[in-house]
Amino acid sequence: MISSAPDTISLTYKVKLKFTSMKGVHGTTAAIAQKIQEEGFKPSSFGRAGSGVYFWRYFSNDEYAKYLAHKWWEFCNKTGNYNKINGDKRCCFIVVKFQSDSLNLMDFSHGLLRENIRTLILNKLDALKSISDNNLTEEEIISGLFSTYVKKIEYDAKVTFDAIIADVPPPKGATGKVGKYVGSCAEAIVVMNLDIIQSIEYTEAV
After folding, report:
1. What DSSP line would sit under 31-58, residue for residue?
2. How far is Cα 144 from Cα 54, in angstroms, rounded to an integer?
């Protein structure tokens, strides 16, 4: 059973007051960035914190967000995720600014929400993996559990979230000295409603 306690629901509204200049960085190939320029973002069907478009969050200093975006591009390059992509495979940063007014955000970086989703995953993951006709990967199952939790809170709170904020682990070894001292996860903004993106800037990685 997914918790829908009033305290959990109320947390989704308090975050509105915090983020007056929230920004994010998405790392991808130059060819994909060009396609995004022409056609817009297309949310992924799954990810480490559910479906959506993923950005590394920052407020004023984008250095670490770009570092993580580059590490993810590097990881995808090495694991063959870009093998079917034609064109320029150099890393490109897509830096976006989000509108700051009237956003409905669910903040999984808050301890209570993080504990709830962790408990859900611990309780359900092994059972779902053991289903004989389940061909999903572990990451796809966890992504589905995230999405299920969000939809349950949306239903209980009678709200539709524009985005969620979640602690997402970078590729192994990518956090460097910063991760050693301040934690191995970083905050990602997972955008479901693309209309909250206020401005977009494309820059080639150096």
Report:
1. HHHHHHHHH----BS--BTBSBEEEEEE
2. 16
What number is the average pLDDT over the span 170-190?
A: 65
pTM: 0.82
Pairing mode of beta strands 91-98, 23-29: antiparallel
For residues 32-44, give the mean pLDDT: 91
Burial class (CB in 10 A: 0-12, 13-18, 19+), 35: middle
CB-based contacts of 39, cutoff 8 Å, min separation 6: none
Distance in angstroms between the alpha carbons of the first and the last residue of the chain: 47
Q: What's the full length of the chain, in residues?
A: 206
Which string of b and e fits 122-133 if b means at least 16 CB within 10 Å? eebeeebeeeee
* Residues forming beta bridges with residue 94, ordered by sequence position: 26, 202
